[in-house]
Every structure is written in structure tokens, then in C-alpha cells.
Amino acid sequence: MLKALLIAAVAFGVLSFLANRSIYYPMREGLWELRAQIGASDVWLTAADGVKLHAWWVPAPEPRVVTLFLHGNAGNLSHRIDHIREITAAGSSILVLDYRGYGKSQGRPTEKGLYADAAAAYEYLVGQGHTRLVIHGESLGTAVAVDLGSRKPCAGLVLEAPFSSARAVAARVLPLIGPLLVWSYDSKSKIQGVGCPLLVIHGDRDEVIDYSLGRRLFEAAREPKQFWTVEHAGHNDLLEVARPHYGRRLADFYASL
Fold first, then answer.
1. Residue 92 backbone class (left: φ over 0; alpha: ψ -120 to 50; beta: rest)
2. DSSP string spanning 104-135?
3. How many Cβ atoms from other residues are within 10 Å of residue 226's Cβ?
4. Domain definitions of the chain by residue range
5. Could you give the CA distance from residue 170 to residue 208 in angstroms, rounded to a whole number?
6. pTM for this one?
């Protein structure tokens, strides 16, 4: 009996480890040749635990605000060229961070590590004299953005395809088993700590992060807040379907801050 329990415990531990590791899909190879094309400069940061991080800084011609962009779980910052162009055109300079383990950043991704990475990028921008900061998260990056926004003052928070918790996402993928294995990134418990204006963007055909999870997080947030449903948009084509309204929505949001 004891042996069976030990085997079950080990098996559960292995499954939990694999499930949580599967959250991240980092890529080292990137479209680094596009840096000059978009006018980006390399920025090197150091997280509180000593991990060296890479980011791109792209100034807007006449910025209203400065955006810290926290991308999703796959690829790296060089795969966010369209976001960079839209955000700078809307009137915001942008710092796009690669978390530990992504792109040219050192280390391996963990929930605690991603929070530390975002904090390092935030402190860098504040140290450069930027005070009107917008934290903009995409997919997994929305959980990192909510965590940061609940701990640090910011002018605004933009969340694209957010979720209430990773556990809730896991429940959609693997009913019954998923919620037992994944307990991380609980944005719903933190969103009440965000006191700045909030803009949530979600596709109503999102096949990765269900639309209802974005609504659930939005409903738990404080005012002022606005929710933009992008009709007929899935998870990976959200920006594409949202054009040409995406830039205008961001510009209006920046102007309201």
C-alpha cells in the first residue's frame, strides 16, 4: 500500500512538473535583423537575482506615454514586430522585454522569474525618467502585467487575451486533471490591487484562452475599465483581425490617461 502511494505521489509530481514546464515555449533564434528596420536599440538589464535580460527600446516620434510590453509564452521579442509598430504609431514609445530563457536573455523561465524580469524592466524605465508608464501584456504576459501593476504604480494597463488563472486555463484543456496540476499565475486574486485605468482586448473565438476567462478577470477588476471584444478573432490572429481599429483604440486609451 505504501509503495503504491509513493508511486502515485512520484507520478503526480512528474505530471505536475511537466504540465507547468509546458506553459513556456521560448525560442532562442529570432528575427534579429529587423532591429534596425524598426529603429530599435538593444537594452541589457539585470534582474534582482542576477539573471541578465535582453530588451528592445523603440522610441515613438511624439510619445504620449511609454509602454512596457510583456509578450506571450512562445517565441521571443523579435516576433512582436507588428505590436511594436502599432503601439509606436498609436503614440507610445516601447520597451519590449524578453523573459529569462527567451531570445538573448539568460536563465530558464519560471513564474517567480518572470515577475522579477518585469520588475527589472519597470525599474529601468523609471530610472530613465519615464513616469507615464503603460504596462501592456499579451496572453501569458497579461498575468505578468497584472502582477506588476498590482505592485507598482502605472498610468494604464492593457491586457490582450487575459485569463483569470493558469488553473482555469488548464481546466479547459484537461478537465478534472488540469486544475490539480497547474496552480500558477492567479491574476484574478491580484487584479483588485490594480488602481489604474484598464483596457482588456479579447477575441470572441479565442481557441487557446477562452473568451469567458477574459470576461471573468475583467469583472473582478476595479473601475475605470473597458472591454473590447474583437469579433471573429482567435488567439494568434487577434492583432490581425483587430486592424485597423487596434491603433485607434490604443491611441484613444493613451489620450484618456
1. beta
2. T--S---HHHHHHHHHHHHHHHHHTT--SEEE
3. 15
4. 2-256
5. 10
6. 0.91
Q: How many CB atoms are closer than 10 A to CB 8? A: 10
Distance, in Å, from the CA atom of 257 to the CA atom of 25, rounded to the nearest integer, reads: 34
Please, what are the averages of pLDDT over each run of 10 residues along the chain (257 residues)?
42 38 85 96 98 98 96 97 98 98 97 98 97 97 98 98 90 60 83 98 97 98 98 97 96 97
| C-alpha cell belonging to residue 224 | 475605470
Q: Rounded to the nearest 5 degrees, what angle is found at the Cα of 109, between the Cα atoms of 103 and 111? A: 140
- What DSSP state is assigned to residue 99? P
Cell of 208: 487557446
Catalytic residues: 139, 206, 235
CATH hierarchy code of domain 2-256:
3.40.50.1820
Q: How many residues does the chain have?
A: 257
What pLDDT, on a 0 to 100 scale, did the predictor assign at position 184?
A: 83
Whole-angstrom Cα distance, residue 76 to residue 67?
Answer: 17
Which residue do the cell numbers 541578465 mark? 52
